[in-house]
């Protein structure tokens, strides 16, 4: 199906009250970002696990591992920017640098909104106005591909922990769990490669037809393009996992490679599946998940907490602060 990019005629200027609201919104984003960072750092448990003394110990013993996690930071978001650059080609040609700025702006707005919905606004507002409606579907597709990578590897983690610590595979419940995980992954993969059929069906339903144009661009991506997007999502997942493993090692969590992988994969899966109300709840879910899975493997909770908080500070908090530089210049109206 060949989706025609939407083209809506909209005003290129804003009245003064609207401009004041826009700048008020930007100021609110700035204040909320700084507030959530402050609250996260002032939490008593976080201070214990993430103190300056603890970081000095980390750098003196396993500084190379912490440095590796830091070096991988631009690569992590660089792969995400590459994904957005690739997805946006159906809508508007973006340079890699512009895509990177859009990703950081989206990260900042997502930092202060429930379930990271601000990520959509950050990326959309960097596009020309006539292309913004179509961007919703492209962003959704990118998130679904990333979710598929998370669910795929996370399913292996759930199987590892379930069969290692709860029930063996050779039981009715164990077999049911295995079949359930296979069905979930198969369903997600089938969904990704059948969007063009779904769009065609939805366009025939009167009650839904008016909403289809927001997502119709998803049907324009070929199977080859979807394969590339899934591979890029897998690459970003691997980089993110490498950062977490490096920080766990730096904080003194010593495990075998497969235990690292399954512990991190389980943490990422639960974090992705549970909706987040705000940035503080987002931190809490990741930390609780990490302490649960690594606790099953006999690891000290405070060491795991320190590594997990460091990952959050490195991959979310720091880029969100940098993204403020790209949020402030955003405009509601933008023409060529």
From TrEMBL:
InterPro entries: L-PG_synthase/AglD (IPR022791). Keywords: Cell membrane, Membrane, Transmembrane, Transmembrane helix. The chain crosses the membrane at residues 20-37, 58-79, 138-163, 175-202, 235-254, 302-328. It comes from Nibribacter ruber. It comes from the Bacteria. GO terms for cellular component: plasma membrane. It is a multi-pass membrane protein. It is found in: Cell membrane. This is Flippase-like domain-containing protein.
């Amino acid at each position: 199906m060949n989706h025609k990019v939407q083209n809506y005629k909209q005003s290129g200027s804003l009245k003064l009250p609207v401009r004041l609201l826009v700048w008020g919104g930007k100021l609110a984003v700035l204040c909320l970002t700084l507030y959530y960072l402050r609250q996260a750092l002032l939490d008593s448990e976080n201070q214990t696990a993430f103190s300056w003394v603890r970081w000095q110990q980390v750098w003196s013993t396993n500084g190379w591992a912490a440095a590796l996690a830091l070096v991988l930071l631009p690569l992590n978001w660089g792969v995400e920017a590459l994904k957005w650059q690739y997805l946006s080609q159906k809508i508007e040609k973006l340079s890699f640098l512009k895509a990177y700025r859009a990703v950081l702006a989206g990260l900042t707005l997502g930092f202060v909104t429930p379930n990271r919905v601000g990520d959509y606004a950050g990326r959309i507002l960097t596009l020309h106005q006539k292309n913004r409606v179509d961007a919703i579907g492209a962003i959704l597709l990118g998130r679904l591909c990333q979710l598929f990578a998370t669910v795929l590897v996370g399913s292996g983690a759930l199987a590892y922990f379930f069969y290692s610590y709860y029930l063996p595979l050779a039981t009715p419940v164990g077999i049911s769990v295995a079949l359930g995980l296979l069905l979930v992954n198969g369903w997600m993969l089938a969904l990704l490669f059948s969007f063009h059929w779904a769009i065609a069906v939805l366009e025939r339903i009167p009650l839904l037809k008016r909403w289809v144009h927001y997502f119709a661009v998803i049907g324009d991506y070929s199977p080859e393009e979807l394969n590339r997007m899934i591979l890029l999502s897998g690459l970003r997942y691997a980089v993110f996992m490498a950062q977490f493993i490096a920080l766990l090692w730096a904080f003194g969590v010593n495990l075998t490679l497969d235990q690292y992988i399954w512990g991190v994969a389980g943490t990422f899966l639960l974090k992705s599946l549970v909706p987040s109300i705000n940035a503080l709840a987002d931190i809490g879910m990741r930390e609780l998940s990490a302490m649960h899975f690594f606790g099953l493997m006999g690891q000290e909770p405070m060491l795991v907490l320190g590594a997990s908080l460091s990952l959050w500070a490195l991959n979310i908090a720091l880029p969100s602060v940098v993204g403020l530089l790209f949020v402030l210049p955003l405009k509601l109206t933008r023409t060529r």
